Amino acid sequence: MIPGNFEYHSASGVDEAVALLAEHGENGKLLAGGHSLLPMMKLRFAEPAHLIDLNGIEELRGIREDGDTLVIGAMTSENAVIASEVLQRRCPVLPEAARLIADPQVRNRGTIGGDALHGDPGNDHPAVLMALEAEFVVRSQKGERREPANGFYLGPYLTRLDDGDLVTAIRVPIPAPDHGYAYAKFKRKTGDYATAAACCLLEMEGDTCRKVRLTLTNVGPTPLRAEDAEELLTGQTIDAERIEQAAQAAMSICEPAEDLRGSPEYKTHMAGEMTRRALHTALERARGG
Amino acid sequence: MAKHAITLNVNGQAMDVAVDSRELLIHTLRDRLRLTGAHIGCETSHCGACTVDIDGASVKSCTMLAVQCQGADIRTVEGLATADGLHAVQEAFTQEHGLQCGFCTPGMLMRAYRFLQENPDPTDDEIRHGMAGNLCRCTGYQNIINAVRVAGEKLRQGEAEPAE
User: Fold this and answer.
1) How far is the C-alpha of A5 from the C-alpha of B20, rounded, in Å?
2) A22: which of A14, A151, A241, B106 is 20 to 30 A away, CA to CA?
3) Chain B CB within 8 Å of residue A44 CB
4) What is the CATH number of the domain that holds B124?
5) Domain with CATH 3.30.465.10 in chain A
6) pLDDT recorded at residue B2
7) Count of A-B CB contacts under 8 Å
8) Is the ipTM of this complex over 0.85?
9) Residue B65 with chain A: CB contacts under 8 Å
10) 3-state secondary structure of A33
């Protein structure tokens, strides 16, 4: 399988990439790691006339701390996310999720920006970035703006990005030092998308939940934030009963499509189980376990 | 549409080729350079049969455009053995029966070659995760895991020299 014809442009800087995007409008598409886009182009699900390769833009890679925020270049590879000492220390849920994406070869090419921005409801980073309350730094010819991850995903392959937009970086507020976290992903095999997955970030005050974020992957047209479940937990002692109530609340917002991974009922059930596991693990970690 | 003139350094040799934008690296290697070691399996970046080494990292060459490899150092399975004999990973796959039909083997070898540089003394669990991007439909994987472990031992002991 070979993609259809297109004109290839290798951008050497952000300004050039933005100018190329503006020039080609809806006929232009950005190429990051290519491990979602190129397979779609082989199948003719995507047929851009112009492909603008971002791989030559060094400033789009790398991870740094900026005060109380982590700034992750959109072209940072999944393996760089996994290997990042800063992320391991400050925000370990990102490497935890990245390790569950695809396989070693794919993670060498695949980028956090590609995964987060493609709009595929099966991708893992969107739910994690929603739980982290991350923001995308968006450049276009109109200038720079920020888009919060929450509210960014509108439908399958549909986000708040316009044709001329290029995301340069992802800004992640550094979670509290003693926070608990977990990304629980159920998948059939290595490299598969989640049958269901749940992300939990948790801050405890003794036995009481000070703050919690719960999000779900691949059980709806977009990643989902389980706000009702969060409300059930916030300010409460987290025990088995609360966790069960939260899992039921998370299940109630699922609307997965039937596919080879299972029926809607099964996927919803697994979303509940992933919610329980993510909460348990995050709680253990918050308690220093 | 105009072709792109690119230079690839393949197994230590500079190769000039003219490629279409849409040409995938696996096709350049196989059809233009006649390096047919890397195989085309799934074509969807799942199976790993097309794995080659690009600038020191394992990559599935069915999911990278040739034009993106301008100036890159590429190593394929043809570049593993030297005039002195087989590479340690090749020896180990032979000794441990790490293959049956052999279709996945070039990808397995190239991934093992890079993995053992990333992690020279892996546990079996680390080998399983490190080789997780390569599918084999014959062996049941256990002999492949054994082969990678033995290759690691050979490399660590400096026994990469061929026996014959």
Assistant:
1) 8
2) A151
3) no
4) 1.10.150.120
5) 58-173
6) 82
7) 80
8) yes
9) 8, 34, 38, 53
10) coil
